[in-house]
Amino acid sequence: MVDTEAERSIGVFDPSEIKLGGKKYYRYMGSLTVPPCTEGVFWTINKKIRSVSRAQVELLREAVHDHAEKNARPIQLLNRREIKLYRPKWKK
Length: 92
What we know:
Layout: E1 25-31, E2 39-46, H1 54-64, E3 84-86
Antiparallel strand pairs: 1-2, 1-3
């Protein structure tokens, strides 16, 4: 187990360098999944399913200090929200 009280530098991370493995993604307006469940959050979900290792999940848990067994609320109704699929336009 990593000492959560100690800080360590992991360097600078540039999100634009993430290789998503696909150009298609879903987007919708929703809310946070944990209290206070604030609305007005844009969610972007990559269409291609990726996996992570157990070690990566543990590092994420430690980074957000979330030791709860359940960290998300149940699935919510759409309530007339639109879910849109974005994909690149093909060149002719």
